[in-house]
Amino acid sequence: MLQTPPAVPGMREDEIDTPALVIDLDAFEYNLDHMTALVSAAGVKLRPHAKTHKSPVIAKMQMARGAVGSCVQKVAEAEVLAWGGIPDILVSNEIVGATKLARLCALSAVAKVAVCVDDAAQIAWIEQAAAASGRRMTVLVEIDVGGARCGIEPGPAAAALAKTIATSKHLIFGGLQAYQGSAQHRRTVTERQALSTAAADAVHRTLDALHAHGLACPLVGGAGTGTFELEMAARALTEIQAGSYLFMDADYARNLDAAGQPVSTFRHALFVLSTVMSAPQSGRAVLDAGAKAVSMDSGLPTVWGKPDLEYVNFSDEHGKLDVASESTMPVLGEKLRLVPGHCDPTVDLYDWYVGVRDGRVECLWPVAARGATA
Amino acid sequence: MLQTPPAVPGMREDEIDTPALVIDLDAFEYNLDHMTALVSAAGVKLRPHAKTHKSPVIAKMQMARGAVGSCVQKVAEAEVLAWGGIPDILVSNEIVGATKLARLCALSAVAKVAVCVDDAAQIAWIEQAAAASGRRMTVLVEIDVGGARCGIEPGPAAAALAKTIATSKHLIFGGLQAYQGSAQHRRTVTERQALSTAAADAVHRTLDALHAHGLACPLVGGAGTGTFELEMAARALTEIQAGSYLFMDADYARNLDAAGQPVSTFRHALFVLSTVMSAPQSGRAVLDAGAKAVSMDSGLPTVWGKPDLEYVNFSDEHGKLDVASESTMPVLGEKLRLVPGHCDPTVDLYDWYVGVRDGRVECLWPVAARGATA
């Protein structure tokens, strides 16, 4: 079952049923526009990651501002975007399994689709699926630029995979995937800079090896919200894949800029609206938003605009607040905005976004690819 | 959108698309039967918590084995169960908000429904909603038996609330809610025993106060999978509300019995099936199940039946395994069962259960109340 929408356009924010996933539309549009300005100034393309928002509605807003398409991590996400009208989708991840590959090949009839590999066996499986579907598939080589997660070793090994793709009958070599995930949340610019420089070096080493094989590299994708400015400056990437810049979250807000201050490039635009649901007692209040309403994987949420209230503990359906002073005790039924610790898995808990501007509900958008983990 | 079912009955387990939420049906039925035997022997009623499974199909199996109904935490969960044919539902939680209360009152036309309060204001709001709907609602008083989350102080304050309910025109006093959530995952029996004894004392104190008001108490509900045997022995509760016993999880498996051994009352019956999706390298492998496939709020998942493999790190769509020896390196495409750290919020990430027996898919059941946080 899908959940009932928690609001109707025109309602006041305090009339929204909770827990609800709320977008501050002014902050959200600022983030969209500001990212467009930054990548345009750097002369780099933007292919935002839809794993953050899971919405063709939002992907279209990004494309209307110049994005070349979307990234996704999963075939099921690619389906939702393609069926929703997004014409150019990169699965920035390895896809293993005959069912998934058959679905991906079929999808290439309605959108331009590309996928990544880091092993020769994956290439053989995609070739087989592409041949069976009668289509040619575009395949990128993912290189490990320092994150030690997926990706083949940069340089000759990666170039050898690219050669295998290029010589496969139903495949096209599409370029390199070079995402340094472990750099995104390092707190200081110095750390993020060192990892971004190393990632760029790994890309250049691989481009040299591709050149030695006589292979052109039409695309090099990577970077996230934590590193994209450093990676644009390093000039190894042709496409930026940041996603979280749209919404920001409590964990990204802990990254520091060169002056040692919290990074302020983008604004908090995503909130979980929650209600004080149990009689507040001296020093504590209980909210209706716990681990099923806010993802706790990157730390607890913070309470927006209420420095006296601290979200200190959770259970599945409850969040406990410490209240610093009696004069700021919230009242039963009061609604509070939480800033999620991590936006991506929090979005994945909801069926609906509620867009708010000037205290009123302006729109409802489905989280169309919620649960699209396959 | 709902997600495509990851399997078809009759398939082999290794043909299931991943990540998938898999029930080992033999272990699951063992857990169902074993709990029935334990509560029957103690002469206590069982009202299992449906926040764990979110499924009318499973709630019916529990009732077929003697359960008196289901507990839920949210109105949206109550709706899914009532619409799915469950006749007796206790919302073991406070419900605040006019929309939610109107929905709850309307639902009482198709099922017996009760709800909890811990404040006089909530009673007034429920009275108002009940009057507007032309129905009488059953209301329990939640007492704080030591968890310091929701609940009014046990004793006279609680009895005063009960009196307010009993004298409200459209309300019926239904009993006490006495759940000690913070006792469930204490590791030693000594700790769990002390907290359970204190909880029982709080119930008895409140029953005395109710008696002084001349109020009968038809129901006292509480206990979870971590404490129900101790709480049955303490004889303060008329209904046991355990939920996780159905599935168990990695965190409950860290509780110890009187001999200092991991508690073995129930079996692990819930798994996330995942695939090795990236080329395994010396000492590491990458799975397709990260924070969007397994809830990380109570610790990382464990790898079932593979002591040499340790799930050590996650990102949104990836899980990283440390591999202790080269001889046990998993291969690309291999499927592994994970035991979730916490079953309840993990279930909430999926649209489908896949029931497996003897290596074959036997059934698919919808997680009908997935995302029912309102």
Topology:
Two copies of one chain form a homodimer.
Chain A: E1 20-24, H1 25-42, E2 45-46, H2 56-64, E3 70-72, H3 75-83, E4 88-94, H4 98-107, E5 112-117, H5 120-133, E6 137-142, H6 156-166, E7 171-177, H7 189-212, E8 220-222, H8 228-234, E9 239-240, E10 270-281, E11 284-287, E12 302-303, E13 309-314, E14 319-323, E15 335-339, H9 343-347, E16 352-357, E17 360-366
Parallel strand pairs in A: 1-16, 2-9, 3-4, 4-5, 5-6, 6-7, 7-8, 8-9
Antiparallel strand pairs in A: 1-10, 10-11, 10-15, 11-14, 12-15, 13-14, 16-17
Explain this structure to me?
Two copies of one chain form a homodimer. Chain A is of the alpha/beta class and 374 residues long. Chain A is 29% helix and 24% strand. In chain A, the strands form two sheets. In chain A, strands 1, 10, 11, 12, 13, 14, 15, 16 and 17 form a nine-stranded mixed β-sheet that branches. Chain A has an eight-stranded parallel β-sheet with strand order 2-9-8-7-6-5-4-3. In chain A, helix 3 packs parallel to helix 4. The model of chain A has no long low-confidence stretch (mean pLDDT 97). Chains A and B meet through strand 10 of A and strand 10 of B.
* Residues in β-strands, percent of chain A: 15-25%
Would you state the CATH class of the largest domain in chain A? Alpha Beta
Largest sheet of chain A: 9 strands, mixed
What is the general shape of chain A? globular
The overall number of domains of chain A is: 2
Helix count of chain A equals 9
In the CATH hierarchy, the architecture of the largest domain in chain A is Alpha-Beta Barrel
Distance between the termini of chain A: 19 Å
Query: What's the CATH topology label of the largest domain in chain A?
Result: TIM Barrel
Q: CATH homologous superfamily of the largest domain in chain A, by name?
A: Alanine racemase
- Assembly type of the chains comes to homodimer
Structural class of the helices, strands and pairings of chain A? alpha/beta
Helix content of chain A: 25-40%
Mean pLDDT across all amino acids of chain A: 97
